[in-house]
Each structure stands twice: as C-alpha cells, then as structure tokens.
C-alpha cells in the first residue's frame, strides 16, 4: 500500500481532514482538481459563518487565516414577514465573546494549506483528476491517469457533484428546492454593528453578514426563475437595499452577484468498504442556517477521531470502524437537514394563515430564553 488514507477533494472540508491527520504518522494523499485561488486584492463572494467549534477544530489553520479579513458576529437579528416579529441572539447575553466569525473561503483555505505545510507523510496531487476506482484484496486503487494510488481508505470530500460518490456506487435521492442562493458583497452606508441580519420574506430568505469595515455579504435564497431575473437587474443593489428595509442604508456592490442552485441531498450511509464521504459529497442542506461547511467540518472531526483511536490492529479502511463514524454522524446531519428543510417550507409558502403562525412562532421563541440558549448551544458546535 502507498497510503493509509487518500482524500479526494482539497476544498475546506478535505483540507481540514488532512490537517487533523497531519501529525498522526498515517501516510496521506490529498487529490485536488484545481489549484486553490485567493484574490488578496478583492473580496470573495463565497463567505462562511464559522462556528467557535469549527474554529477550534481547525486550530492552526484558523490561526493562519488573515485575521484582518475576518469579522466577528456578536448579534443575530432575524425578522419575520410582518413589521413586528423579531428573534434576536446576542453573544453578550449568552456570556460569549462572539456567536461566529465571517470569513472568506479563499482566506480560510489559504490559512489551512499553510498550516498543513509539506510534511513527509503527505503527498498533494494537484491539479489531478480521477479516472477510475478499483477494490483490491488489501485496499482500493485510485487511477489518476499517470499514477495509480493504492490506499487502505479513500475519502470523498469532492463536493456536491462528487466523482467518488458516484464511482463508489452510493445512491442519492436529491430533492431540488427549485431555489437558488444569490451571493454578492456590498459596502453599506450604515454600520453593520457586527450583526448577522436575516429576513424571512414571503419571496425568499435574505441574509446580510458582517465583513470587515463597512462591508456585508449577501446570501439571498429565492425561486430560481426569480434569481435569474434579479441577476439581470441593472439596479440589483437597490433591490437588495429595498428588500432589507434599508436597515443598512444604501448599498454599493463590490463583487458581481452569482447564483447557486439549492437542493436537499443525503446518502443512506456515509460509508462503504474502504470508502467514506464527508462534507458536501455526503450531504447538501439549505444555506438559511449558514451551517453547511460547519456540518462538513464536524464530519472531518469525527472521522479523524475514529481513525486516530482505531487501535494498532485495525487498518484505516476497516468496515466496522467506518460504520462507527457513520453512526456517530447520523443524528447531527439529520437534525440540521430536517430543521432547515422545515423552516424553508414554513417560510416559502403562501398557504393562508401560515404567515400569522410563523411570525407568532418567531415571537414565541424570542420570549423563551431557554429555547434561545439551546439554539445558541447548537450553533456553537
Ligand atoms: C450560496 C451558498 C451559501 C453558503 N453559505 C454558507 C455559509 O454561510 N456557511 C456555511 O457553513 N456553509 C455555507 N454554504 C455551504 C458550503 O458552501 C458547503 O457546505 C461547503 O463549501 C462544502 O465544502 P466541501 O469542502 O465539502 O466541498 P467544496 O467546497 O465543493 O469542495 C470540493 C473540492 O473538491 C474538488 N473536486 C471536485 N471534484 C473533484 C475530483 N473529481 N477530483 C479531485 N478534486 C475534486 C473541488 O475542486 C473542490 O476544491 C453555502 C452554500 C451555498 C450554495
């Protein structure tokens, strides 16, 4: 065997697994299709709300990211579709320094790759593309064209359209939301107050997330045909300002808007003999809770724990060991997907009377400190 673990996909989740296994002594390979991009002169429109739990799992990878481009979230303010319903989460009230941090994808990935460095037990294949996968007596063979990698375990961290998932024969049953999320960055007239602002509107869910200075990042989930119309609007910033009730005043766009189709997807099991899936290769959720990448980091954290604690006799592709990882991840993934799916259905729905119920629901949660504390604890993981 060349390797103990081959990770296909060096996005944030795959890189986090490589980082967490770097000191394990295991022989590792990371296979990535495209070299990472980071535009230090501009701002990424792909941004993430990183939970304190994820930041602590990433350790040196988190510390190496450029902190001048990271913004804390000290409050979350969530509004219903009437004027008076609001749910507010405050770090101060919960006795915390912050609820999350907003970071650009490229900045975080660059920090993680720097923290990984060039250890002797890790080989990076980039750019590389996968041509074939074969199970042998002792492991799996991953064909990269010019090279064939032999490993005891291959991990699919290659995103929503995972090559490994389909070539290893995982069945999926995706359910498109028929919605797209539009992302773009803006400069705002009024201070964002380190607050993540979110509006559950009848026509979609709009979030403005605080970035350094007077910048905010938009994630606006709308029906896909509406997304196409909005992207073609010459006065898109004005539409965003209007849809966010001008809370942050006038908006000036600093990155061109882009839209991503949204879907709900999960696999029946995250593992097969000698194969495991993590991150978006394993599950896609609605971005309304901003938790997709955190869920992926928790997959990587669990898989790395199981591999590190496996004991001397077991190899990394041992099926009962992988099943343990699968069982440990089930509840977290299912509860995140169920919650975001329910909220999406509840709010993007024109059934008469439902608007009253959902706004009353927001106000009810606002009045119940114990529910709010439970929700905060979940979001910190
Ligand atoms: C609009 C939108 C907003 C979002 N906002 C948030 C947010 O605020 N917070 C949050 O936590 N999540 C958010 N998410 C979800 C988040 O983007 C994903 O959960 C996250 O990017 C998943 O990371 P990943 O590493 O699993 O996959 P990816 O980021 O897709 O990385 C996969 C990697 O694999 C590589 N690859 C693909 N195929 C191959 C192959 N065959 N061989 C080798 N390499 C390959 C790709 O080049 C890529 O580098 C959002 C999603 C959307 C659509």
In short:
The chain is α+β, with helices and mostly antiparallel strands.
Kindly name the structural category: alpha+beta
CATH class term of the domain at 3-60 and 106-174 and 263-343:
Alpha Beta
Q: Any idea what the shape is?
A: globular
CATH superfamily caption of the domain at 3-60 and 106-174 and 263-343: FAD/NAD(P)-binding domain
Distance between the termini: 36 Å
**Please, what is the average pLDDT?**
93
Record field, number of beta strands: 20
The CATH level-2 architecture of the domain at 3-60 and 106-174 and 263-343 is identified as 3-Layer(bba) Sandwich
Biggest beta sheet summary? 9 strands, mixed
Give the strand content.
Answer: 25-35%
Radius of gyration: 21 Å
Low-pLDDT runs of 5+ residues are: none
The CATH topology of the domain at 3-60 and 106-174 and 263-343 is given as FAD/NAD(P)-binding domain
Q: Can you give the helix content as a percent range?
A: 25-40%
- Number of distinct helices: 11
Bound molecules: flavin-adenine dinucleotide
Overview of this protein structure:
- The chain is an alpha+beta fold and 381 residues long.
- It has a domain of 208 residues: 3-Layer(bba) Sandwich (FAD/NAD(P)-binding domain), CATH 3.50.50.
- Strands 5, 6, 12, 13, 14, 15, 16, 17 and 20 form a nine-stranded mixed beta sheet that branches. Strands 1, 2, 8, 9, 10, 11, 18 and 19 form an eight-stranded mixed beta sheet that branches. A three-stranded antiparallel beta sheet has the order 3-7-4.
- Helix 1 packs parallel to helix 4, helix 2 packs across helix 8 and helix 8 packs antiparallel against helix 9.
- The longest helix has 29 residues.
- The chain binds flavin-adenine dinucleotide.
- Flavin-adenine dinucleotide binds next to helix 1, strand 3, strand 12 and helix 8.
- Flavin-adenine dinucleotide (FAD) binds next to helix 1, strand 3, strand 12 and helix 8.
């Amino acid at each position: 065997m060349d390797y103990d673990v081959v990770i296909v996909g060096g996005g944030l989740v795959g890189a986090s697994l490589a980082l967490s296994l770097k000191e394990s002594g295991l022989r590792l390979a990371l296979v990535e299709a495209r070299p990472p991009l980071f535009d230090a002169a501009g701002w990424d429109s792909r941004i993430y709300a990183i939970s304190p739990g994820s930041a602590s799992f990433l350790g040196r990878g988190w510390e190496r990211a450029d902190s001048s481009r990271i913004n804390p979230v000290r409050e979350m303010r969530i509004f219903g579709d009437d004027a008076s319903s609001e749910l507010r989460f405050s770090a101060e009230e919960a006795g915390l320094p912050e609820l999350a941090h907003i970071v650009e994808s490229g900045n975080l990935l660059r920090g993680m790759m720097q923290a990984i460095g060039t250890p002797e037990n890790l080989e990076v294949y980039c750019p590389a593309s996968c041509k074939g996968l074969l199970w042998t007596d002792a492991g799996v063979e991953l064909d990269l064209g010019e090279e064939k990698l032999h490993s005891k375990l291959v991990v699919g961290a290659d995103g929503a359209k995972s090559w490994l998932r389909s070539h290893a024969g995982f069945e999926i049953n995706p359910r498109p939301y028929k919605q797209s999320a539009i992302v773009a960055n803006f400069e705002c007239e009024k201070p964002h107050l380190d607050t993540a602002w979110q509006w559950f509107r009848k026509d979609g869910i709009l979030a403005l997330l605080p970035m350094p200075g007077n910048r905010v990042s938009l994630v606006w989930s709308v029906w896909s045909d509406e997304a196409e119309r909005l992207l073609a609007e010459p006065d898109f910033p004005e539409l965003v300002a209007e849809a966010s009730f001008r809370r942050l005043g006038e908006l000036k766009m600093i990155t061109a808007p882009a839209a991503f189709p949204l879907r709900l997807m999960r696999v029946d099991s995250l593992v097969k003999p000698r194969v495991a899936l993590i991150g978006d290769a394993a599950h896609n959720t609605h971005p309304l809770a901003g938790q997709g990448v955190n869920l992926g980091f928790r997959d990587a954290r669990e898989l790395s724990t199981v591999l590190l604690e496996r004991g001397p006799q077991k190899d990394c592709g041992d099926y009962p060991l992988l099943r343990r990882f699968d069982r440990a991840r089930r509840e977290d993934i299912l509860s995140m997907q169920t919650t975001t799916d329910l909220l999406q259905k509840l709010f993007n729905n024109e059934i008469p009377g439902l608007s009253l119920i959902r706004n009353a629901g927001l106000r009810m949660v606002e009045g119940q400190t114990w529910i709010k504390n439970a929700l905060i604890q979940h979001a910190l993981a």
